[in-house]
Write a structure and sequence with these properties.
Length: 567
Protein backbone atom coordinates (compact mmCIF):
# COMPACT_ATOMS: atom_id res chain seq x y z
CA UNK A 1 0.00 0.00 0.00
CA UNK A 2 1.19 3.52 -0.88
CA UNK A 3 2.31 5.41 2.20
CA UNK A 4 3.61 8.91 2.86
CA UNK A 5 5.38 10.84 5.60
CA UNK A 6 3.22 12.27 8.37
CA UNK A 7 3.90 16.02 8.75
CA UNK A 8 2.48 16.05 12.28
CA UNK A 9 4.56 13.14 13.58
CA UNK A 10 7.83 12.92 11.65
CA UNK A 11 8.95 9.37 11.13
CA UNK A 12 5.40 8.00 11.17
CA UNK A 13 3.90 6.91 7.88
CA UNK A 14 0.27 7.57 7.03
CA UNK A 15 -2.17 6.73 4.28
CA UNK A 16 -2.70 9.20 1.42
CA UNK A 17 -5.71 11.43 2.03
CA UNK A 18 -8.06 9.49 -0.29
CA UNK A 19 -7.50 6.26 1.62
CA UNK A 20 -7.61 8.14 4.91
CA UNK A 21 -10.99 9.40 3.75
CA UNK A 22 -12.41 5.92 3.30
CA UNK A 23 -10.91 4.81 6.58
CA UNK A 24 -12.39 7.87 8.30
CA UNK A 25 -15.84 7.16 6.83
CA UNK A 26 -15.70 3.51 7.89
CA UNK A 27 -13.95 3.65 11.25
CA UNK A 28 -14.49 7.08 12.78
CA UNK A 29 -17.98 7.60 11.39
CA UNK A 30 -19.09 3.94 11.29
CA UNK A 31 -19.95 3.74 7.54
CA UNK A 32 -22.84 6.17 7.76
CA UNK A 33 -25.48 6.30 5.01
CA UNK A 34 -27.89 8.74 6.63
CA UNK A 35 -26.61 12.21 7.44
CA UNK A 36 -28.45 15.25 8.78
CA UNK A 37 -27.33 18.48 7.10
CA UNK A 38 -25.75 21.50 8.73
CA UNK A 39 -28.65 23.93 9.18
CA UNK A 40 -28.41 27.44 10.58
CA UNK A 41 -30.98 27.92 13.38
CA UNK A 42 -32.15 24.34 12.96
CA UNK A 43 -29.50 21.62 13.49
CA UNK A 44 -29.00 22.49 17.16
CA UNK A 45 -28.25 19.82 19.77
CA UNK A 46 -31.87 18.97 20.67
CA UNK A 47 -32.79 18.51 17.00
CA UNK A 48 -29.66 16.47 16.32
CA UNK A 49 -30.48 14.14 19.20
CA UNK A 50 -34.05 13.75 17.96
CA UNK A 51 -32.78 12.95 14.45
CA UNK A 52 -30.28 10.43 15.80
CA UNK A 53 -33.04 8.66 17.75
CA UNK A 54 -34.88 8.37 14.45
CA UNK A 55 -32.22 6.87 12.28
CA UNK A 56 -29.64 9.57 11.50
CA UNK A 57 -26.08 8.22 11.61
CA UNK A 58 -24.12 11.48 11.49
CA UNK A 59 -25.12 15.07 12.24
CA UNK A 60 -23.57 18.45 11.51
CA UNK A 61 -23.66 21.60 13.62
CA UNK A 62 -25.18 24.66 11.99
CA UNK A 63 -22.60 26.68 10.06
CA UNK A 64 -20.39 28.63 12.47
CA UNK A 65 -18.49 31.79 11.55
CA UNK A 66 -14.80 31.03 12.01
CA UNK A 67 -13.77 34.61 12.70
CA UNK A 68 -16.50 35.20 15.30
CA UNK A 69 -15.74 31.79 16.78
CA UNK A 70 -12.14 32.68 17.52
CA UNK A 71 -12.76 36.14 18.90
CA UNK A 72 -15.99 35.70 20.89
CA UNK A 73 -15.97 33.18 23.77
CA UNK A 74 -19.73 33.64 24.31
CA UNK A 75 -20.52 32.75 20.69
CA UNK A 76 -18.16 29.78 20.95
CA UNK A 77 -19.82 28.50 24.09
CA UNK A 78 -23.33 28.85 22.69
CA UNK A 79 -22.51 27.57 19.22
CA UNK A 80 -20.75 24.40 20.23
CA UNK A 81 -23.13 22.73 22.68
CA UNK A 82 -22.91 18.96 22.52
CA UNK A 83 -23.08 15.82 24.69
CA UNK A 84 -21.82 12.24 24.63
CA UNK A 85 -24.78 10.91 22.64
CA UNK A 86 -24.19 13.58 20.02
CA UNK A 87 -21.52 11.67 18.03
CA UNK A 88 -20.39 11.29 15.33
CA UNK A 89 -20.55 15.05 14.95
CA UNK A 90 -19.11 17.27 12.24
CA UNK A 91 -18.58 20.95 12.98
CA UNK A 92 -19.09 23.21 9.99
CA UNK A 93 -17.38 26.56 9.52
CA UNK A 94 -17.55 29.26 6.94
CA UNK A 95 -14.30 31.07 6.29
CA UNK A 96 -12.22 32.81 3.67
CA UNK A 97 -8.89 32.83 5.42
CA UNK A 98 -6.86 29.70 6.10
CA UNK A 99 -5.23 31.05 9.28
CA UNK A 100 -8.51 32.13 10.84
CA UNK A 101 -10.18 28.86 9.86
CA UNK A 102 -7.35 26.85 11.35
CA UNK A 103 -7.52 28.77 14.62
CA UNK A 104 -11.26 28.10 14.84
CA UNK A 105 -10.88 24.45 13.83
CA UNK A 106 -8.20 23.85 16.48
CA UNK A 107 -10.62 25.12 19.13
CA UNK A 108 -13.42 22.89 17.84
CA UNK A 109 -11.55 19.66 17.07
CA UNK A 110 -11.61 18.18 20.59
CA UNK A 111 -15.42 18.23 20.41
CA UNK A 112 -16.05 16.60 17.04
CA UNK A 113 -15.10 13.96 14.51
CA UNK A 114 -14.32 16.24 11.57
CA UNK A 115 -14.30 19.86 10.49
CA UNK A 116 -16.38 20.76 7.46
CA UNK A 117 -15.94 23.85 5.28
CA UNK A 118 -19.12 25.40 3.92
CA UNK A 119 -18.60 25.98 0.21
CA UNK A 120 -22.29 25.78 -0.66
CA UNK A 121 -24.12 28.73 0.89
CA UNK A 122 -25.58 30.76 -1.99
CA UNK A 123 -27.27 33.50 0.06
CA UNK A 124 -26.66 37.22 -0.28
CA UNK A 125 -25.10 37.24 3.17
CA UNK A 126 -22.46 34.77 1.96
CA UNK A 127 -21.77 36.95 -1.05
CA UNK A 128 -21.26 39.96 1.21
CA UNK A 129 -19.11 38.00 3.66
CA UNK A 130 -17.28 36.28 0.78
CA UNK A 131 -17.78 32.69 1.87
CA UNK A 132 -19.82 29.61 0.98
CA UNK A 133 -20.53 29.08 -2.72
CA UNK A 134 -18.94 32.45 -3.54
CA UNK A 135 -15.50 30.92 -3.00
CA UNK A 136 -16.04 28.21 -5.56
CA UNK A 137 -14.04 29.98 -8.24
CA UNK A 138 -11.10 30.82 -5.99
CA UNK A 139 -9.28 27.52 -6.17
CA UNK A 140 -5.92 28.74 -4.78
CA UNK A 141 -7.70 30.02 -1.64
CA UNK A 142 -9.64 26.76 -1.27
CA UNK A 143 -6.47 24.72 -1.71
CA UNK A 144 -4.82 26.81 0.97
CA UNK A 145 -7.72 26.43 3.42
CA UNK A 146 -8.18 22.69 2.92
CA UNK A 147 -4.49 21.78 2.92
CA UNK A 148 -3.80 23.95 5.97
CA UNK A 149 -6.46 22.08 7.97
CA UNK A 150 -5.44 18.72 6.55
CA UNK A 151 -1.86 19.18 7.70
CA UNK A 152 -2.52 20.71 11.09
CA UNK A 153 -5.64 19.05 12.52
CA UNK A 154 -5.94 15.75 14.29
CA UNK A 155 -9.40 15.23 12.78
CA UNK A 156 -10.16 15.12 9.04
CA UNK A 157 -11.29 18.08 6.99
CA UNK A 158 -14.39 17.68 4.81
CA UNK A 159 -16.16 20.03 2.37
CA UNK A 160 -19.75 20.68 1.35
CA UNK A 161 -20.03 22.04 -2.15
CA UNK A 162 -22.54 22.98 -4.83
CA UNK A 163 -22.09 21.97 -8.46
CA UNK A 164 -21.35 24.01 -11.58
CA UNK A 165 -23.64 23.61 -14.57
CA UNK A 166 -20.83 21.95 -16.43
CA UNK A 167 -20.19 18.40 -15.22
CA UNK A 168 -16.51 18.31 -16.23
CA UNK A 169 -15.80 21.53 -14.39
CA UNK A 170 -17.63 20.17 -11.35
CA UNK A 171 -15.51 17.03 -11.43
CA UNK A 172 -12.31 19.08 -11.72
CA UNK A 173 -13.46 21.13 -8.73
CA UNK A 174 -14.03 17.99 -6.64
CA UNK A 175 -10.66 16.58 -7.63
CA UNK A 176 -8.94 19.82 -6.67
CA UNK A 177 -10.46 19.60 -3.18
CA UNK A 178 -9.49 15.94 -2.88
CA UNK A 179 -5.92 16.75 -3.91
CA UNK A 180 -5.78 19.50 -1.28
CA UNK A 181 -6.60 16.98 1.47
CA UNK A 182 -10.40 16.94 1.73
CA UNK A 183 -11.39 13.56 3.14
CA UNK A 184 -15.11 13.49 2.53
CA UNK A 185 -17.13 15.53 0.08
CA UNK A 186 -20.80 16.37 0.39
CA UNK A 187 -22.20 17.38 -2.97
CA UNK A 188 -25.39 19.41 -3.08
CA UNK A 189 -26.42 18.77 -6.67
CA UNK A 190 -27.63 22.30 -7.36
CA UNK A 191 -25.78 25.31 -8.72
CA UNK A 192 -25.43 28.43 -6.60
CA UNK A 193 -28.10 30.09 -8.74
CA UNK A 194 -30.64 27.41 -7.77
CA UNK A 195 -32.05 28.94 -4.62
CA UNK A 196 -35.31 30.30 -3.21
CA UNK A 197 -38.19 29.82 -5.61
CA UNK A 198 -35.72 28.86 -8.33
CA UNK A 199 -34.38 25.90 -6.33
CA UNK A 200 -35.68 23.19 -8.65
CA UNK A 201 -34.30 19.68 -8.81
CA UNK A 202 -30.78 18.68 -7.80
CA UNK A 203 -28.70 16.87 -10.41
CA UNK A 204 -27.75 13.39 -9.30
CA UNK A 205 -25.92 13.06 -12.61
CA UNK A 206 -23.32 15.57 -11.39
CA UNK A 207 -23.05 13.74 -8.08
CA UNK A 208 -22.56 10.41 -9.84
CA UNK A 209 -19.83 11.88 -12.03
CA UNK A 210 -17.97 13.12 -8.96
CA UNK A 211 -18.38 9.81 -7.19
CA UNK A 212 -16.82 8.03 -10.16
CA UNK A 213 -13.88 10.45 -10.32
CA UNK A 214 -12.67 10.71 -6.72
CA UNK A 215 -11.51 8.15 -4.20
CA UNK A 216 -12.76 9.89 -1.06
CA UNK A 217 -16.28 9.15 0.23
CA UNK A 218 -19.02 11.22 -1.41
CA UNK A 219 -22.29 12.19 0.26
CA UNK A 220 -25.21 13.17 -1.97
CA UNK A 221 -27.49 16.07 -1.05
CA UNK A 222 -30.67 17.29 -2.77
CA UNK A 223 -34.04 15.74 -3.79
CA UNK A 224 -34.22 13.60 -0.65
CA UNK A 225 -37.76 13.74 0.72
CA UNK A 226 -38.37 10.16 1.89
CA UNK A 227 -36.61 6.85 2.42
CA UNK A 228 -37.40 5.72 -1.14
CA UNK A 229 -35.49 8.77 -2.42
CA UNK A 230 -32.55 7.80 -0.21
CA UNK A 231 -32.47 4.28 -1.64
CA UNK A 232 -32.86 5.49 -5.20
CA UNK A 233 -30.08 8.04 -4.75
CA UNK A 234 -27.67 5.50 -3.29
CA UNK A 235 -28.41 3.10 -6.16
CA UNK A 236 -28.27 5.69 -8.96
CA UNK A 237 -25.16 7.58 -7.86
CA UNK A 238 -23.16 4.95 -5.97
CA UNK A 239 -22.38 7.43 -3.19
CA UNK A 240 -21.44 6.35 0.33
CA UNK A 241 -24.23 8.27 2.02
CA UNK A 242 -27.09 10.68 1.63
CA UNK A 243 -27.70 13.98 3.44
CA UNK A 244 -31.09 15.50 4.16
CA UNK A 245 -31.98 19.04 5.28
CA UNK A 246 -35.57 20.05 4.56
CA UNK A 247 -36.76 16.44 4.36
CA UNK A 248 -35.44 15.94 7.89
CA UNK A 249 -36.95 19.17 9.19
CA UNK A 250 -40.43 18.25 7.96
CA UNK A 251 -40.08 14.63 9.04
CA UNK A 252 -37.29 13.82 11.51
CA UNK A 253 -38.14 10.11 11.04
CA UNK A 254 -37.29 10.30 7.33
CA UNK A 255 -34.46 7.78 7.67
CA UNK A 256 -36.74 5.29 9.41
CA UNK A 257 -39.13 5.38 6.47
CA UNK A 258 -41.88 6.37 8.87
CA UNK A 259 -44.35 9.27 8.80
CA UNK A 260 -45.41 9.86 12.41
CA UNK A 261 -48.14 12.20 13.62
CA UNK A 262 -46.49 15.57 14.18
CA UNK A 263 -47.29 15.74 17.91
CA UNK A 264 -45.34 12.54 18.60
CA UNK A 265 -42.02 13.94 17.38
CA UNK A 266 -42.90 17.47 18.54
CA UNK A 267 -43.39 16.34 22.16
CA UNK A 268 -40.23 14.25 22.02
CA UNK A 269 -38.35 17.27 20.68
CA UNK A 270 -39.76 19.55 23.40
CA UNK A 271 -38.48 17.14 26.06
CA UNK A 272 -35.04 17.29 24.47
CA UNK A 273 -35.18 21.07 24.17
CA UNK A 274 -35.99 21.24 27.86
CA UNK A 275 -32.92 19.20 28.68
CA UNK A 276 -30.70 20.92 26.10
CA UNK A 277 -32.03 24.48 25.82
CA UNK A 278 -31.82 26.51 22.65
CA UNK A 279 -33.31 29.85 21.50
CA UNK A 280 -37.13 29.81 21.40
CA UNK A 281 -37.02 30.92 17.77
CA UNK A 282 -35.45 27.55 16.84
CA UNK A 283 -38.17 25.65 18.72
CA UNK A 284 -40.89 27.72 17.09
CA UNK A 285 -39.33 27.16 13.67
CA UNK A 286 -39.27 23.39 14.16
CA UNK A 287 -42.88 23.25 15.35
CA UNK A 288 -44.07 25.37 12.43
CA UNK A 289 -42.47 22.91 10.05
CA UNK A 290 -43.77 19.80 11.80
CA UNK A 291 -47.33 21.15 11.87
CA UNK A 292 -47.11 23.07 8.61
CA UNK A 293 -50.25 21.60 6.99
CA UNK A 294 -52.43 21.73 10.10
CA UNK A 295 -51.47 25.35 10.68
CA UNK A 296 -52.57 26.29 7.17
CA UNK A 297 -56.15 25.25 7.95
CA UNK A 298 -58.40 28.20 8.81
CA UNK A 299 -59.73 26.48 11.94
CA UNK A 300 -56.20 26.50 13.35
CA UNK A 301 -55.35 30.14 12.76
CA UNK A 302 -55.66 30.89 16.46
CA UNK A 303 -53.29 28.08 17.38
CA UNK A 304 -50.94 29.32 14.70
CA UNK A 305 -50.94 32.79 16.29
CA UNK A 306 -50.41 31.14 19.66
CA UNK A 307 -47.36 29.33 18.32
CA UNK A 308 -46.05 32.50 16.72
CA UNK A 309 -46.25 34.41 19.99
CA UNK A 310 -45.42 31.63 22.45
CA UNK A 311 -42.48 32.63 24.57
CA UNK A 312 -41.39 29.47 26.36
CA UNK A 313 -41.49 25.70 26.15
CA UNK A 314 -44.66 25.40 28.23
CA UNK A 315 -46.49 27.70 25.78
CA UNK A 316 -45.30 25.56 22.88
CA UNK A 317 -46.22 22.34 24.65
CA UNK A 318 -49.72 23.62 25.28
CA UNK A 319 -50.19 24.43 21.56
CA UNK A 320 -48.90 21.00 20.54
CA UNK A 321 -51.25 19.28 22.98
CA UNK A 322 -54.23 21.25 21.64
CA UNK A 323 -53.32 20.19 18.10
CA UNK A 324 -52.99 16.60 19.27
CA UNK A 325 -56.39 16.68 20.98
CA UNK A 326 -57.89 18.02 17.81
CA UNK A 327 -56.49 15.40 15.41
CA UNK A 328 -55.94 12.31 17.57
CA UNK A 329 -59.55 11.10 17.10
CA UNK A 330 -59.05 11.20 13.33
CA UNK A 331 -55.68 9.52 13.63
CA UNK A 332 -57.11 6.75 15.78
CA UNK A 333 -60.12 6.39 13.51
CA UNK A 334 -62.80 7.32 16.07
CA UNK A 335 -63.69 10.23 13.78
CA UNK A 336 -63.64 10.15 10.01
CA UNK A 337 -61.34 12.51 8.17
CA UNK A 338 -62.92 13.52 4.87
CA UNK A 339 -59.56 14.08 3.25
CA UNK A 340 -60.48 17.60 2.19
CA UNK A 341 -57.92 20.01 3.61
CA UNK A 342 -59.46 23.00 1.90
CA UNK A 343 -55.96 24.42 1.51
CA UNK A 344 -55.84 24.22 -2.23
CA UNK A 345 -53.37 21.40 -2.72
CA UNK A 346 -53.33 17.67 -2.27
CA UNK A 347 -51.35 15.98 0.44
CA UNK A 348 -49.95 12.46 0.39
CA UNK A 349 -50.95 11.99 4.04
CA UNK A 350 -53.56 13.70 6.24
CA UNK A 351 -52.35 17.13 7.41
CA UNK A 352 -51.33 16.06 10.94
CA UNK A 353 -48.80 13.58 9.56
CA UNK A 354 -45.14 14.59 9.07
CA UNK A 355 -44.55 14.69 5.34
CA UNK A 356 -42.38 16.43 2.77
CA UNK A 357 -42.78 20.03 1.86
CA UNK A 358 -43.19 20.14 -1.88
CA UNK A 359 -42.01 23.38 -3.50
CA UNK A 360 -43.45 24.69 -6.72
CA UNK A 361 -41.12 24.25 -9.66
CA UNK A 362 -39.13 27.23 -10.99
CA UNK A 363 -41.28 27.07 -14.14
CA UNK A 364 -44.48 27.36 -12.09
CA UNK A 365 -42.92 30.18 -10.10
CA UNK A 366 -41.98 32.13 -13.23
CA UNK A 367 -45.44 31.53 -14.71
CA UNK A 368 -47.04 32.89 -11.54
CA UNK A 369 -44.75 35.93 -11.62
CA UNK A 370 -45.73 36.73 -15.20
CA UNK A 371 -49.43 36.32 -14.34
CA UNK A 372 -49.01 38.62 -11.35
CA UNK A 373 -47.23 41.25 -13.42
CA UNK A 374 -49.97 41.10 -16.05
CA UNK A 375 -52.64 41.45 -13.37
CA UNK A 376 -50.85 44.46 -11.87
CA UNK A 377 -50.50 46.03 -15.29
CA UNK A 378 -54.27 45.62 -15.85
CA UNK A 379 -55.08 47.18 -12.47
CA UNK A 380 -52.73 50.10 -13.10
CA UNK A 381 -54.23 50.71 -16.49
CA UNK A 382 -57.75 50.63 -15.05
CA UNK A 383 -56.83 52.98 -12.22
CA UNK A 384 -55.08 55.38 -14.57
CA UNK A 385 -58.07 55.46 -16.86
CA UNK A 386 -60.54 55.89 -14.01
CA UNK A 387 -58.27 58.35 -12.16
CA UNK A 388 -58.39 56.32 -8.93
CA UNK A 389 -55.86 54.69 -6.63
CA UNK A 390 -52.27 54.48 -7.69
CA UNK A 391 -51.24 56.14 -10.89
CA UNK A 392 -47.88 57.05 -12.18
CA UNK A 393 -46.46 60.51 -11.83
CA UNK A 394 -43.08 62.06 -12.23
CA UNK A 395 -41.27 63.42 -9.20
CA UNK A 396 -38.95 66.40 -9.26
CA UNK A 397 -36.04 64.21 -10.23
CA UNK A 398 -37.86 63.02 -13.31
CA UNK A 399 -38.18 59.55 -11.84
CA UNK A 400 -41.45 57.77 -12.48
CA UNK A 401 -43.27 57.04 -9.24
CA UNK A 402 -46.55 55.43 -8.33
CA UNK A 403 -49.12 57.90 -6.98
CA UNK A 404 -50.21 56.50 -3.62
CA UNK A 405 -53.65 56.15 -2.15
CA UNK A 406 -54.46 58.72 0.49
CA UNK A 407 -53.91 57.69 4.06
CA UNK A 408 -51.50 54.91 3.17
CA UNK A 409 -47.92 54.86 4.37
CA UNK A 410 -46.90 55.90 0.88
CA UNK A 411 -49.01 58.99 0.81
CA UNK A 412 -46.77 61.26 2.81
CA UNK A 413 -43.09 61.03 2.18
CA UNK A 414 -42.45 57.90 0.25
CA UNK A 415 -40.20 59.13 -2.47
CA UNK A 416 -37.17 58.60 -0.29
CA UNK A 417 -38.04 54.98 0.44
CA UNK A 418 -37.08 51.84 -1.42
CA UNK A 419 -39.75 49.34 -2.37
CA UNK A 420 -38.37 46.91 0.14
CA UNK A 421 -38.56 49.43 2.97
CA UNK A 422 -42.08 50.41 1.96
CA UNK A 423 -43.16 46.79 2.06
CA UNK A 424 -41.67 46.39 5.51
CA UNK A 425 -43.36 49.50 6.80
CA UNK A 426 -46.72 48.51 5.36
CA UNK A 427 -46.41 45.14 7.00
CA UNK A 428 -45.56 46.69 10.33
CA UNK A 429 -48.39 49.15 10.03
CA UNK A 430 -50.98 46.50 9.33
CA UNK A 431 -49.68 43.71 11.51
CA UNK A 432 -48.65 45.02 14.88
CA UNK A 433 -48.23 42.34 17.46
CA UNK A 434 -51.87 42.16 18.42
CA UNK A 435 -51.30 39.46 20.97
CA UNK A 436 -49.12 41.50 23.25
CA UNK A 437 -51.27 42.35 26.22
CA UNK A 438 -48.60 44.12 28.21
CA UNK A 439 -46.05 42.75 30.61
CA UNK A 440 -45.78 43.85 34.17
CA UNK A 441 -43.78 47.07 34.32
CA UNK A 442 -43.79 47.55 30.54
CA UNK A 443 -46.08 50.17 29.00
CA UNK A 444 -47.74 49.71 25.65
CA UNK A 445 -46.88 51.76 22.58
CA UNK A 446 -49.28 54.64 21.91
CA UNK A 447 -50.13 53.25 18.45
CA UNK A 448 -50.11 49.48 18.90
CA UNK A 449 -50.02 46.82 21.60
CA UNK A 450 -46.22 46.32 21.42
CA UNK A 451 -44.04 47.40 24.33
CA UNK A 452 -42.99 51.04 24.26
CA UNK A 453 -39.30 51.93 23.80
CA UNK A 454 -38.11 52.92 27.27
CA UNK A 455 -36.15 55.93 25.95
CA UNK A 456 -38.60 56.98 23.23
CA UNK A 457 -39.92 60.53 23.69
CA UNK A 458 -42.87 59.70 21.44
CA UNK A 459 -43.91 56.76 23.66
CA UNK A 460 -43.86 54.37 20.72
CA UNK A 461 -42.40 50.96 19.98
CA UNK A 462 -39.48 50.96 17.54
CA UNK A 463 -41.57 49.90 14.52
CA UNK A 464 -44.21 52.60 15.03
CA UNK A 465 -41.53 55.14 15.86
CA UNK A 466 -39.71 54.43 12.63
CA UNK A 467 -42.93 54.90 10.65
CA UNK A 468 -43.66 58.18 12.41
CA UNK A 469 -40.14 59.43 11.83
CA UNK A 470 -40.36 58.58 8.14
CA UNK A 471 -43.71 60.22 7.74
CA UNK A 472 -42.99 63.30 9.82
CA UNK A 473 -39.34 63.66 8.93
CA UNK A 474 -37.92 63.49 12.44
CA UNK A 475 -35.32 61.72 14.56
CA UNK A 476 -35.72 59.65 17.70
CA UNK A 477 -32.69 59.71 19.97
CA UNK A 478 -34.15 56.96 22.18
CA UNK A 479 -34.43 54.51 19.30
CA UNK A 480 -31.39 55.93 17.55
CA UNK A 481 -33.45 56.61 14.44
CA UNK A 482 -31.76 59.35 12.41
CA UNK A 483 -34.06 59.85 9.48
CA UNK A 484 -34.21 63.65 9.59
CA UNK A 485 -30.46 64.01 10.15
CA UNK A 486 -29.67 61.68 7.29
CA UNK A 487 -32.03 63.39 4.91
CA UNK A 488 -30.55 66.76 5.77
CA UNK A 489 -27.06 65.43 5.29
CA UNK A 490 -28.01 63.96 1.94
CA UNK A 491 -29.62 67.23 0.91
CA UNK A 492 -26.53 69.26 1.81
CA UNK A 493 -24.34 66.86 -0.06
CA UNK A 494 -26.58 67.06 -3.10
CA UNK A 495 -26.51 70.86 -2.99
CA UNK A 496 -22.73 70.92 -2.73
CA UNK A 497 -22.42 68.62 -5.69
CA UNK A 498 -24.86 70.43 -7.89
CA UNK A 499 -22.71 73.57 -7.49
CA UNK A 500 -19.79 71.76 -8.94
CA UNK A 501 -20.10 71.53 -12.70
CA UNK A 502 -17.18 69.24 -13.37
CA UNK A 503 -17.91 66.70 -16.10
CA UNK A 504 -21.48 67.90 -16.18
CA UNK A 505 -22.39 66.45 -19.56
CA UNK A 506 -21.08 63.03 -18.64
CA UNK A 507 -23.01 63.08 -15.39
CA UNK A 508 -26.28 63.75 -17.13
CA UNK A 509 -25.88 60.70 -19.30
CA UNK A 510 -25.12 58.51 -16.29
CA UNK A 511 -28.01 59.90 -14.25
CA UNK A 512 -30.43 59.23 -17.03
CA UNK A 513 -29.16 55.70 -17.14
CA UNK A 514 -30.13 55.27 -13.51
CA UNK A 515 -33.34 57.27 -13.70
CA UNK A 516 -34.56 55.28 -16.67
CA UNK A 517 -34.69 52.28 -14.44
CA UNK A 518 -37.52 54.07 -12.66
CA UNK A 519 -37.88 54.00 -8.92
CA UNK A 520 -37.07 50.30 -8.78
CA UNK A 521 -34.39 49.05 -6.44
CA UNK A 522 -31.32 49.08 -8.57
CA UNK A 523 -28.83 46.42 -7.73
CA UNK A 524 -25.29 47.58 -8.04
CA UNK A 525 -22.06 45.75 -8.27
CA UNK A 526 -21.06 44.78 -4.74
CA UNK A 527 -17.58 46.20 -4.59
CA UNK A 528 -18.75 49.52 -5.93
CA UNK A 529 -21.59 49.57 -3.48
CA UNK A 530 -19.24 48.82 -0.62
CA UNK A 531 -16.98 51.55 -1.88
CA UNK A 532 -19.96 53.86 -1.78
CA UNK A 533 -20.82 52.73 1.72
CA UNK A 534 -17.37 53.42 3.01
CA UNK A 535 -16.70 56.59 1.11
CA UNK A 536 -20.03 58.30 1.24
CA UNK A 537 -21.88 56.70 4.19
CA UNK A 538 -24.40 54.51 2.41
CA UNK A 539 -27.55 55.56 4.12
CA UNK A 540 -27.02 59.13 2.97
CA UNK A 541 -26.14 58.15 -0.57
CA UNK A 542 -28.91 58.14 -3.14
CA UNK A 543 -28.55 56.48 -6.50
CA UNK A 544 -28.39 59.88 -8.09
CA UNK A 545 -25.62 61.02 -5.78
CA UNK A 546 -23.79 57.79 -6.25
CA UNK A 547 -24.06 58.24 -9.93
CA UNK A 548 -22.81 61.81 -9.78
CA UNK A 549 -19.89 60.86 -7.61
CA UNK A 550 -18.84 57.97 -9.77
CA UNK A 551 -19.37 59.22 -13.25
CA UNK A 552 -16.23 57.60 -14.56
CA UNK A 553 -17.05 54.20 -13.18
CA UNK A 554 -19.01 51.85 -15.35
CA UNK A 555 -21.86 50.56 -13.25
CA UNK A 556 -22.98 47.01 -13.42
CA UNK A 557 -26.65 46.44 -12.89
CA UNK A 558 -26.91 42.94 -11.67
CA UNK A 559 -29.83 40.64 -11.51
CA UNK A 560 -28.71 38.88 -8.40
CA UNK A 561 -28.85 39.26 -4.65
CA UNK A 562 -26.47 42.07 -3.75
CA UNK A 563 -26.88 44.97 -1.40
CA UNK A 564 -29.41 47.50 -2.53
CA UNK A 565 -29.04 51.27 -2.53
CA UNK A 566 -32.13 53.00 -1.28
CA UNK A 567 -33.35 56.04 -3.12
C1 LIG B 1 -32.99 25.89 7.50
C2 LIG B 1 -31.79 25.56 6.67
C3 LIG B 1 -30.54 25.95 7.11
C4 LIG B 1 -29.41 25.62 6.37
N1 LIG B 1 -28.17 25.94 6.85
C5 LIG B 1 -27.05 25.47 6.23
C6 LIG B 1 -25.78 25.59 6.82
O1 LIG B 1 -25.62 26.11 7.92
N2 LIG B 1 -24.70 25.10 6.13
C7 LIG B 1 -24.83 24.49 4.91
O2 LIG B 1 -23.83 24.05 4.34
N3 LIG B 1 -26.04 24.35 4.35
C8 LIG B 1 -27.15 24.80 4.98
N4 LIG B 1 -28.39 24.59 4.44
C9 LIG B 1 -28.49 23.89 3.16
C10 LIG B 1 -28.68 22.41 3.45
O3 LIG B 1 -27.62 21.88 4.19
C11 LIG B 1 -28.84 21.61 2.14
O4 LIG B 1 -27.64 21.67 1.43
C12 LIG B 1 -29.97 22.12 1.27
O5 LIG B 1 -31.09 22.46 2.03
C13 LIG B 1 -30.38 21.04 0.25
O6 LIG B 1 -30.76 19.87 0.90
P1 LIG B 1 -32.30 19.41 0.98
O7 LIG B 1 -32.78 19.31 -0.44
O8 LIG B 1 -32.28 18.12 1.70
O9 LIG B 1 -33.04 20.49 1.72
C14 LIG B 1 -29.53 24.93 5.14
C15 LIG B 1 -30.81 24.55 4.71
C16 LIG B 1 -31.92 24.85 5.45
C17 LIG B 1 -33.27 24.41 4.96
Amino acid sequence: MFEMLNAKQPGVFVLPSCEMGMQFWKEALGSPCYLVAPMVDASELAWRLLSRRHGAHVCYTPMLHSSVFIRDPKYRKEALVSCVEDRPLIVQFCANDARVLLEAALLAEPHCDAIDINLGCPQAIARRGHYGAFLQDDWPLLTDMVSTLHQALSVPVTCKIRVYEDIEHTVAYARMLEAAGCQMLTVHGRTKEQKGPLTGLASWEHIKAIRESVSIPVIANGNIQCLEDVKRCLAETGVQGVMSAEGNLYNPSIFEGHNPPAWEVALEYLDLAEKYPCPTSYVRGHLFKLFQHCLCLPENFELRAELATGSDLSDFRSTVLQLRDCYLPYHEGTKTWTGDTGIGYNLIHPPWICQPYVRITPEEHLKKLVEKQNRNADVNQFEEESGSGEAEKENQDGITMKRPREGSVESTDSKNMSKRKMKKLRKLQHNPNKNFHGRRGVDKCVDCPNPVGSKCDLRLCKACCRIKCYLENRDCAGHRILIKTRREKACEQRKAESQSDITRGHQTVQCEHIANKGNQNIRLDKTKWEHAVQAEHASAVSQEQYCQLHTEQKMTIENDDVPILNV
